[in-house]
């Protein structure tokens, strides 16, 4: 059973302890300072299985664009991929931001991370474009956007 | 003459091109993704001298704590330090967040960056504590806080 709840500041330690390993050894920790767990609790979530960290999502509401929300980080334990955890985290994010009038959700990922691009496309994201040096020199990014209906779709 | 204005998305390229050099060669760019220039324009500023980048500040309003604002990054061209540019950037930030009821401003810096700690203290920040591994393993941080009066002080 996967349980999803809002992230708390105290979750940061566990997340930062696994994030490099979950990304196959890439040094990801500098991109995820503690501030995301302190100041964006309402739009950040963790997934747990029997109390063990299985995934997390850090997002926020754009303070420039009143109709936009942004997902900065999504991670799922490699041993638990393919079980819908990333999907469920995103759905909780959509449910949190849609009532606030945030109908545009943006995220970026690395062009080399084909699995991530495909995952986002299955969730309804479109690839806007691939931008070279988007996040600094060598930081090429795939720009992703999903438009939410203001009224949740019936299921 | 130093001119301070809100940061625009188009400023990101110049900033990210100098940030490592301004920090004496430390690899800072991964901590400063483009998102800060896209989604927090109202609380981010650049300083220019005759059109040339002299400094910048990236901050945001906490979405967890309605009375807090946070400064994520402040940089000043090493050749222009001691001219009050960092001070002026912070004052613009305080002016932007105070009318929104943000009376607590937080920032963090590295314990080894004594100049930064002293700079913040001159601006009225207090050192709350030094936290080991605050931003992940090895990421020790000095936690700084400044309380703003709701009514601006007369000068």
For the largest interface, the chains and their residue counts are: A-B, 30 and 30 residues
What structural class do helix, strand and pairing data of chain A support? alpha+beta
**Taking strands numbered 1, 2, ... along the chain, how are they ordered across the largest sheet of chain A?**
1-2-3-4-5-7-6
Low-confidence stretches of chain A: none
What is the element string of chain A, with H for helices and E for strands?
EHHEEEHEHEE
Q: What do you see in this structure?
A:
Two copies of one chain form a homodimer. Chain A is α+β, with helices and mostly antiparallel strands and 155 residues long. Chain A is 25% helix and 32% strand. Chain A has four helices and seven strands. Chain A has helices spanning 12-22, 35-39, 85-97, 114-122; strands at residues 2-6, 44-49, 52-61, 68-76, 104-109, 126-131, 141-147. Chain A has a seven-stranded mixed sheet with strand order 1-2-3-4-5-7-6, with helices on both faces. The longest helix of chain A has 13 residues, at 85-97. Chain A binds chain B through residues 16-17, 27, 29-35, 38-43, 60-65, 68, 70, 72, 134-137, 139, and chain B through 16-17, 27, 29-35, 38-43, 60-65, 68, 70, 72, 134-137, 139.
